[in-house]
Amino acid sequence: MFRIKSTLLASALTLACLTTWAQSAPNPAATPGIDQRQANQEKRVDQGVASGALTPREAKRMENQQAAVDRAEDKAKADGVVTAQERKRLHKAQNHTSRHIHRQKHDAQTAPKP
Questions:
Q1: Domain contains 110
Q2: pLDDT at residue 24 tops 60
Q3: Which of 17, 23, 54, 60 is deepest in the core (most CB within 10 A)?
Q4: What is the pTM of this model?
């Protein structure tokens, strides 16, 4: 009797652990780091517009680049898995956009003051 109870208890604990593990397994299509970086870069563009460091034309270009990265991310997620190669490509695109934001914010052009 004791052996049956022990076996049932062990089986129940194993099942509970497996259920918890399955629920906490990361989503292979999740890109929280990429999403956070996109949000940070959008804030940098907004700050550049607010301070006058970016002209409206420069800001529009930055927004278009951000949209291109968003489209690339959506394409990578389309099959349900973002591979290491796709992540690398997304990070490279974000690096390019980040450098472009920095260059445009620190060039001699400023938005006209009202």
A1: no
A2: no
A3: 54
A4: 0.72
